[in-house]
Write the structure tokens for this entry.
Amino acid sequence: MTTDTAEPTLTIDELAARAGVTVRTVRFYGTKGLLPPPVIGPRRVGHYGREHLARLELIEELQRQGMTLAAIERYLRQLPPDLSAHDLAIHRAVVASWAPDTVETVTRAELERRAGRALTDGEVERLAAMDVVRTGSSGDAYDVDLGLLRLGVRLLDVPLSQEAILAARKVLIEHSRAAAHELAQLFRGEVSERGTRDVKSLSAHMHPLVVQALLTTFQRSLTEELGEWLT
């Protein structure tokens, strides 16, 4: 588990804007115990940190999957209490992987609401280059890949060139497809003599497990690589 050391600096309005929800929603989750209380600073103003934002994004993702508040509460209760923002993001990535590809056509205002921030024309162009946003049939509409939007918006603030980000995207796509192909071949060999029902059952059970294994393995490998590079 990693530890985030940054002090909570977001007001409730800023937290809601970053997550693309309303202040009322943040307060509601707080009263339900789904979000931990803020750190109270000067003038009795509550401040939220990266863990609050990551937990809020996980809650929203679970809701998009159709989970009820009671089910979300049970899910969160099973998580270790000291998870960092990074760990929560891993959980959200696993949950999001269960969802089918979702592309919606939205207005510019709705795009910015979903992004949790105002977007300049240049930033929208960068999102388009990452294939997160495409111009819709009318000039004021955008086709948005909701599964990639949050990631794309975060990449806008990463100090990397657009070329480096696109090159990284290409590497990830190529290697993930190769891994998926080899795993599919392995599983196909295991069930080649079984019926179709058994194959579908195995796929349903293995999909979330394989995704979580890939995320965990990649996370550790990347940590080791970066550690060697920085030492």
In short: DSSP finds ten helices and five strands in the chain. The chain has three domains: 12-97, 103-155, 162-230.
